[in-house]
User: Fold this.
Amino acid sequence: MATPVPDHAPVSEIEAERAYLDTARDALRRMHDDVVTTETQVTVAEDNDNIYERIMFDYHRRLRADALVDLPNVPLFFGRLDFDAEHGGERFYVGRRHVHDGVGTPLVIDWRAPVSTAFYRASRADPQGVRLRRRYGFSESAALTAYEDEPLTGGRAVEDAGEALLAAEIERPRSGPMRDIVATIQPEQDELVRAPLGTTLCVQGAPGTGKTAVGLHRVAYLLYTARETLGRHGVAVVGPNRSFLSYIRHVLPTLGEVNVVQTTVADMIGRPVTGTDPGPVARIKGDGRMARVLHRALWAHVTRPAEGLVYTKGTYRHRVADHEVSEIVASLRGTTRYNAGRAMVAQRLAHAVLVQMERRGESPDDRTQAAVARSRPVKQLLDSVWPKVTPEQVLFRLLGDAEFLAKAARRDLTEEERALLRWERPARSWRSAKWSEADAALLDELADLVERPEVRDHIVVDEAQDLSPMQCRAIARRCPHGSFTVLGDIAQATSPWAVRDWPALLEHLGRPDARLEVLDRGFRVPAQIIDYAARLLPRIAPDLGAPVSARRAPGALRVTRVDDLLGAVVEVCREQAKVEGSVGVIAADADLPGIHRRLADEGLAPSLLGEDETAMEASRLVCVPATLAKGLEFDAVVAVEPSRIVAAEPRGLHRLYVVLTRAVSALHVLHAEPLPEPLAGPPAAG
Ligand SMILES: Nc1ncnc2c1ncn2[C@@H]1O[C@H](COP(=O)(O)OP(=O)(O)OP(=O)(O)O)[C@@H](O)[C@H]1O
Assistant:
């Protein structure tokens, strides 16, 4: 094992490194001040009438300045590369952002720059020109306290170089939100972070293999290498819920990226969810066949005209015959988005009127055509053959009117499925209808048929295994020309509509040719715990290989049968309060309020996730409903009554797998009832 050097390093060496850090910090401060002062003068001095441009200019300047703020607890560099003489013999400090001195000489190289790749990938087998790799250790307040050298050519090989730092970094007690991993990105992760922008990348990874971390670092990398391309419509990160987003929200800013949208699918779709669906209904609504049903339902509103158009101007009556109107409507029906088609019908009708005007010797211009297109008779005709509709009106009709549903569904849905879809007690109007999460995706599909949505250049989709085909389509339409990074774990799929495998999901996302990669080295969860959780795999994801942990932690797993469940939870939490780090108490959603109350009564000051999105920061003891545990992690986890977690939902075993894989250092499983069958035997020793 490589030993951190400070004990025997010459004092002058570490002093020299600290002095270098101070110099780099001063230089960054000067870069920040330059943006704020110099460029402000330019803006103020500018006599620019275009207010919008000025606002944007100031906005981008502020972003640039924000990106250059020296965050007090974030080390400015974390590594150093000394190249051998054959490769120029240069020395580079690798850090979170580029820093240069007053004359432009680089002091710190951005970790995303091509030269930094060697920091993550060079090895003794393939040194890539690197003679020596140095990694630094820092205190909580970002003071440089240690360094560790790894010669890659000549000298003595340092066994497990980097492993000690990696383990120390993972095991460093957590408090609050997720941290970046920029100093210790592993070679297999780096390959994914730096994958080219053009390809859609799909990463299947066991719990804790770093998928979320890879996704976020990839965003930072792509923005660095393709800022221009991504600058038009930007990048979005889509996560499973707001608690998760709150948990990851600091990672990109610490990497210098302050302008990335982080959202949930529901928020991206942007429709209020006020109702719920039973699982079987949600499954049908989420199914990709619904796209065809909705398409027919919308276009069923366009009908054959019963009569032609009569447009009166002065004493003249201009007529467009019914068969001509029919032709116009038929030629446009279904060829464009619904609203665009409606506008085009109006223009074509107006054009037909104009032709008649010209025949009578008039010389109408574009303004006349626009006036005819907006005129009352044209509008009345349009309202009858191509009426204005909202997505809500169409879906309301579809879910409330059996005959309409049958017509739109044709053979895409069975009679049974249609019966399930139909509202038992429809609301009085579409305005008072209660829409579920699944309805939101259907409304979004309809909205897309009516009008084009706002788009992005790249979207990272985390926990993608839970998306329904219809939600995939909602995401896909927001990135029609860009690429995706899709992250997830089929074994953690808990939604009723989850797809079977990645190819099926990628098909719905419109990227069947995506590059599929697997991460199987788990960093979060020690082997003792992951092996225990993996007993569920044959039941929940028989095709997936067992995850491999990068760490062992003897004594990390305790499974205890108790009589007084609440008492036992309190006891374990008290015990955990004596050691550093975060503690997550995870139980079936229905049981959690009781547990939370009891812990509060005992004076343990827990926070409650769900009620408080920032609960992870509010207290070091967090009560977590099982349905919100996905993507989160704690130093210690108390998993309460697994059988109730399993019983709470149809994919309860998948949920339990998620719950059991949240711990970094200790997992306490407490149960009064028998454990679910796959966990029944004693855990392996160790
Ligand atoms: N290279 C690394 N260096 C240090 N820590 C790492 C590294 N890779 C992953 N980790 C840590 O491991 C933990 C798990 O990472 P992450 O949440 O990204 O995994 P995940 O695959 O998304 O997990 P899940 O499927 O459970 O959501 C985090 O604490 C992360 O910081």
Remarks:
- The two ends are 22 Å apart (CA to CA).
